[in-house]
Design a protein that fits this description.
The chain has 483 residues and is α/β, with parallel strands linked by helices. The chain has 2 domains: 7-251 and 459-482, Aldehyde Dehydrogenase, Chain A, domain 1; 255-438, Aldehyde Dehydrogenase, Chain A, domain 2. 39% of the residues lie in helices and 23% in strands. The protein has 15 helices and 24 strands. It has helices at residues 42-61, 64-80, 82-93, 97-117, 156-167, 182-193, 208-217, 230-241, 265-277, 297-310, 328-344, 379-382, 398-406, 421-430, 466-472, and strands at 4-5, 7-9, 12-14, 21-26, 29-38, 125-126, 133-141, 144-148, 171-175, 201-203, 223-227, 246-250, 255-259, 287-293, 347-350, 354-355, 365-366, 369-372, 389-395, 410-411, 413-417, 435-438, 454-455, 474-482. The strands form 7 sheets. A 7-stranded mixed beta sheet has the order 15-18-19-14-13-21-22, with helices on both faces. A 5-stranded parallel beta sheet has the order 10-9-8-11-12, with helices on both faces. Strands 1-5-4 form a 3-stranded mixed beta sheet, covered by helices on one side. β6 and β7 (133-141) form a beta hairpin. 54% of the residues are buried. The structure holds nicotinamide-adenine-dinucleotide. Nicotinamide-adenine-dinucleotide is lined by residues 148-153, 175, 177-178, 208-209, 212-213, 216, 227-229, 232, 235-236, 250-253, 284, 384, 386, 412, 453, 457.
Length: 483
Amino acid sequence: MVTTYGNYVNGEWSDSKSGATFKVTNPADSNDVVARFQESTSSDAETAIQAAVTAQDEWAETPAPARGEFLKQAGQELGERKEEATETLVREEGKTRSEAAGEVQRAIDIFHYYAQKTRDLGGVVKSPSGRDKELYTKREPLGTVSIITPWNYPIAIPSWKLAPALAAGNTVVAKPASEAPNSTRIIFECLDEAGLPNGVANYVTGPGSEVGSSLTNHEDIDAVSFTGSTAVGTTVAEAASEDLKRCQCEMGGKNPTVVMPSADIEEAVEILGVGAFGTTGQSCTAASRAIVHEQVYDEFVTAMVEYAKDVEVGPGLEDPGMGPHVSESELESTLKYVNIGEEEGATLETGGTRLTDGEYTDGYYICPAVFSDVDNDMRIAQEEIFGPVLSVIKANDFEDALELANDVDYGLSASIVTQDLTEADKFIDGIEAGVAKVNEKTTGLELHVPFGGFKQSSTNTYREQGDAGLDFFTSTKTIYRNY
Ligand code: NAD
């Protein structure tokens, strides 16, 4: 018996007016239907927006620490449901159990973090240019905001937008990606259990072209927080700018890790292996380019290929090294790029083939791929692949490596593996990326520091997470008081 889940609008679980639903299947076994969800329309989005608008004043007037209590309670609810949420995430998105458990824990931590932050929503006090005056700022909520999220972190990303938006006193309408709406649904159940007032947070499933578009264009939406591909994010940013909505779009990546001769090659391979093949390469921050100094290039390629061959691929619930792709179309896209790489003249050292036998028959499995002899102007070195494909590019020296690292349209996360402090410092200064790491993988983020990209990885308007999350969801009012 397949469960059909509703939208969460004005504190009720309800069906779409369309009467239509869509199904979500398990990427490890396409015969396993996870659940059905509402194929909502613009009219459903409109109803949710009106519920959020109606709830807004009361929510904004609720003392911030009292809002924080709801977030804390929701975080506790999610903590109690951690195992269930982890399995839900594995079953709809394909992550390994360890990866999914880490993501759910991240969501729990985010709710607790922003619950605490509600006590510190102050402004700044400055010295006025005159006697008997006061000069200070205060934060105010924006109003009703929309949250549009991708499938690849379907519990963490909605949480890192929802929690600061609610903490700041906004009401929210959220639309998850249709590949993985089930994990996001759990967050709303937790908010409901926490007793969040009706209409404060709403969840509407359905096509981006219809529901997402309404959440971007509607005149009662005051701000849009989007995470997804650069192609869709660009249209969202353009549409939102038409009536000057505040908008943040965090988008794709093509992230480099530079490996210098002083690096411990075993450590570099581990950093790149986890960065490139973890989450099946389906992270915006996944390493997809290894830019390796010529002195250690051959040694690195040999060791990287061995690593890739050893990655155990399987169903996420068994907690292997790497799970399946989220969907057939994502798998097809990765296979297409493997072909492109071969046609472009790069050497496919290992992997890149679909796994189809035995337990793999009905899943979207691929062996992790390593390409050597990659030129930086090849498509496999320039375009986001969103699968476990690593391109290894040779660099003559540090300057060449830095230039190659920057020679892409994206600028999300980048790392260098080196023992040389000068190289590390020059890399931090010179890399065009929102996240720069030394002797670390490009993936993996702390929740209390800003996150966001440069260049086409972001609209570069605001950052997410930490205090930056609150900056996006608040307006600053400056007060001049003469008494
Ligand atoms: P996507 O752009 O296809 O979809 C993202 C969301 O936008 C989905 O909810 C989708 O339904 C919605 N959408 C689609 N068309 C829309 C429209 N016209 N108007 C409004 N909304 C619309 O992305 P995806 O395939 O779900 O996710 C993968 C992408 O997300 C990758 O490019 C990845 O790099 C990126 N991503 C970025 C970050 C980051 O923080 N920079 C994090 C995770 C994923």
